[in-house]
Amino acid sequence: MFDELSEKLSATFARLRGKGVLTEADIKEGLREVRRVLLEADVSFQLTREFLERVEKAAVGITQLKAVQPAQQLVKVVYDELVAMLGERREGLKLSTVPPTVVLMVGLQGSGKTTTTAKLAKKLQGEQRQVRMIAADVYRPAAIDQLETLGQQLGVPVYADRGTTDVVKIARAGLEQARRDRDRVVLVDTAGRLTIDDQMMAELTALRDAIRPDEVLLVVDGMTGQDAVRTAQGFHEALGVTGVILTKLDGDARGGAALSIYGTIKRPIKYVGTGEKVDALEDFHPDRMAGRILQQGDVLTLVEKAQAAFDEDEAKKLAKKVRKEGMDLEDFLGAMKQMQRLGPLESVLKMLPGVNAKMLAQANVDPKRIKHLEAIVLSMTKAERQDPTLLNGSRRSRIAKGAGRPVSEVNRLLDQFREMRKMMKKAATGGRMGFPPGMFMR
């Protein structure tokens, strides 16, 4: 997400930082480059022009600054304007004072609406809210089956009625059931089309008027660039969208849709989809996203992910064991499994300040490395995991065959494990803790 935009903006600012003192001509040249980068990232011409007008106005006087590096100050100005372009502040789901909160999920076919409905249900579950989904997509083959399957996986009830195509009737009956069961939030999955048409909008308008939702969330495919912005405009004019969920941002290198939607319809991006799994839905924070674009990292989101992924009791037990006995390979395996819950390794590393796609490519970070390490450790016997000193040459050969990996990888893992054990021991007495360098590289 935003890889091309991020790399090009960083290169522009690196050139400016190299000059030390900025002249007015330097700033104008730099802003011309920023303009080109934004347009290449698929940000609309109108929004790009307004963005640069605000930056240029705020940049007046930067050349006279002495206490702060002028180039750094220009980066701060661009950061502030990026935050404003993305929506200024985080806006979560608006919850009704009288439950249930009703959320109407709308969007074009293929945007990931049904999957996103389930992802939002999963997220709300994690916030201890009782959720129900209503299957009001009566046209797409297997849409109801898909939602019911996702509901079963999550333990979320799904209301469906295959005996009618009257979506208003289905939604009303589902809401009555939700009120009887005292559900806190109801998510209504609706039908989409390949393009916006009058029939779809008439049906959605009738449904909106009948159930009077607290939120109308538009699910938009982030890979479609300016088409996503036009889609947002069409839905907003017809339905009065209250928020946007941008999907497939893990595959969109340019990011122009995210930068353009708020500026176009003035409705917040509330969530972003960052993968295919049901837990791959993140809150959207404009300030954090601007930081990611300018390669300043997103440590707050990383900390939140870690808090959600790591078992506090298990962490305390491991810390106690490390202090007394030192960690073994079973502990190491547990730590790796918890790391996997943070999401794709590359995405996690990108949240660290200064880390960019180019650095990751040069470092040869292997996204499959954790799986390979796990396969090696699982090919060991329990006794071998608890006492790695047992691992002589013949045992290592057997483990390599069992894991389908070369013996050199087994040897490398054991070397890195020993290094990690030293680091953990040091951390237990107040030093630095973490996985050793190169652990997840080819």
- The structural class is alpha/beta
What is the number of helices? Answer: 20
Tell me the span between the first and last alpha carbons: 23 Å
CATH superfamily of the largest domain: P-loop containing nucleotide triphosphate hydrolases
Radius of gyration (CA) equals 25 Å
CATH class of the largest domain, named Alpha Beta
* CATH A-level architecture of the largest domain: 3-Layer(aba) Sandwich
Overall mean pLDDT? 81
The strands making up the biggest β-sheet line up spatially as 3-2-4-1-5-6-7-8
Gross morphology:
flat
Number of strands: 8
Overview in brief:
With 442 residues, the chain is an alpha/beta fold.
Key phrases:
442 residues, alpha/beta, Four Helix Bundle (Hemerythrin (Met), subunit A), 434 Repressor (Amino-terminal Domain), 20 helices, 8 strands
Model description:
The protein is of the alpha/beta class. The chain is 56% helix and 9% strand. It is flat and about 70 Å long.
Task: Give the helix/strand layout.
Layout: H1 3-17, H2 24-40, H3 45-58, H4 70-86, E1 101-106, H5 113-126, E2 131-136, H6 143-154, E3 158-159, H7 167-180, E4 185-190, H8 198-211, E5 215-221, H9 226-239, E6 243-247, H10 256-265, E7 269-273, E8 281-283, H11 286-293, H12 299-309, H13 312-324, H14 329-340, H15 345-350, H16 357-363, H17 369-378, H18 382-386, H19 393-403, H20 407-428
Parallel strand pairs: 1-4, 1-5, 2-3, 2-4, 5-6, 6-7
Antiparallel strand pairs: 7-8
Helix pairs in contact: 1-2, 2-3, 3-4, 4-11, 5-6, 7-8, 9-10, 13-20, 14-17, 17-19, 19-20
